[in-house]
């Protein structure tokens, strides 16, 4: 089913997984997806070479298995830096062959040796997907705190408006640790004529190192209340990860209470994280048993 139809029908709840890195077997991803499917998400998204992992070849096979074997809607990510129109058309044909109706159209992070060929920005990819007549439901990324490369807020919203005009059907946010950033962003979108539904993406922090890495790669700021949680958690990695899941659940509950088009959990291939999020959203009434 198309994700824009799901969002139109009511608030959504979804998870993200990434294909196994290096030599890890594909079965690992199938097992993770299968366990997450037990928590009945509206969809599971599958990343495409995220963080430069180079594991893009497994995105469609995993997404296909989610649709076919688990009966859950899959969202296949796609980045376009370094790709030609023919590469994208081949990917679209693969999606069609696997019965996948949803794609998240992204530029991808800049890396040495990966320059723009036919697509400089995500909006170029979105326009191509629309023009190709694929009929795909196309999602796009947005950034409550602005994209790291954006020189100004105005340019950040102009880029977002271009995604809307190119034909994006909805937006999914980059992770954020302070919901006030999301609420401000949502208001500003309207002022900048960006009227697409916005699904809020939440990632539990797992350790001091991980959150510092996130701050640099995504430009997400770390509020004092998160630093305090980590200090209170102490040096034990398990306690730090537990504090991260607790904090993420509180963020989700607050977003649910403030009305949101959808909640997406960056569950980092951890079914326990996805499950904790579902329990929190059941408890606050966002989800029904
Ligand atoms: P763009 O929209 O092209 O924006 C990139 C920069 O260019 C921004 O600063 C923007 O303001 C500017 N810009 C955009 N259009 C124009 C224009 N027309 N003229 C001038 N400037 C412009 N990465 C992966 O590799 N794989 C994944 O699976 C993946 N999944 C993601 C999922 C989500 C929900 C999010 C939020 C990010 C994901 N990323 C993934 C990371 C993403 O690829 C990076 O954030 C990337 O740096 C930007 O992607 P974008 O699609 O927003 O690019």
Structural overview:
With 289 residues, the protein is an alpha/beta fold. 47% of the residues lie in helices and 15% in strands. The chain is built from eleven helices and eight strands. The protein has helices spanning 3-9, 26-37, 59-70, 85-97, 122-131, 153-166, 179-191, 208-218, 224-233, 237-257, 271-283; strands at 12-17, 43-46, 73-79, 102-106, 137-142, 170-173, 198-202, 262-266. An eight-stranded parallel beta barrel has the order 1-2-3-4-5-6-7-8, surrounded by eight helices. Helix 2 packs parallel to helix 11 and helix 9 (224-233) runs antiparallel to helix 10 (237-257). The radius of gyration is 18 Å and the shape is globular. The two termini are 21 Å apart. The mean pLDDT is 95. The protein binds flavin-adenine dinucleotide (FAD).
Brief account:
The protein is of the alpha/beta class and 289 residues long. 47% of the residues lie in helices and 15% in strands.
């Amino acid at each position: 089913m198309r994700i824009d139809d799901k969002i139109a029908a009511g608030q959504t709840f979804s998870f993200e997984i990434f294909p196994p890195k290096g030599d890890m077997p594909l079965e690992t991803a199938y097992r993770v997806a299968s366990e997450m499917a037990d928590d009945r998400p509206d969809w599971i998204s599958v990343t495409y070479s995220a963080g430069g992992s180079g594991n893009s070849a497994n995105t469609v096979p995993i997404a296909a298995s989610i649709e076919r074997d688990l009966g859950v809607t899959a969202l296949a990510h796609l980045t376009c830096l370094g790709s030609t129109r023919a590469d994208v058309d081949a990917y679209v044909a693969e999606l069609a062959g696997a019965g996948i109706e949803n794609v998240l159209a992204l530029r991808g992070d800049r890396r040495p040796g990966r320059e723009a060929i036919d697509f400089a920005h995500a909006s170029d990819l979105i326009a191509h997907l629309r023009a190709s007549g694929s009929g795909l439901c196309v999602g796009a990324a947005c950034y409550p705190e602005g994209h790291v490369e954006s020189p100004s807020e105005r340019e950040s919203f102009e880029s977002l408006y271009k995604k809307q005009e190119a034909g994006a059907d909805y937006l999914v946010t980059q992770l954020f640790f302070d919901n006030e950033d999301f609420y401000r962003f949502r208001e500003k979108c309207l002022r900048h004529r960006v009227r697409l539904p916005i699904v809020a993406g939440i990632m539990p922090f797992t350790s001091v190192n991980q959150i510092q890495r996130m701050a640099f790669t995504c430009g997400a700021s770390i509020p004092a209340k998160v630093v305090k949680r980590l200090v209170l958690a102490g040096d034990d990695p398990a306690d730090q990860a537990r504090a991260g899941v607790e904090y993420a659940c509180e963020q989700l509950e607050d977003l649910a209470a403030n009305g949101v088009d959808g909640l997406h959990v960056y569950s980092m291939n951890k079914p326990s994280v996805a499950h904790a999020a579902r329990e929190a959203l059941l408890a606050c009434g966002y989800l029904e048993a």
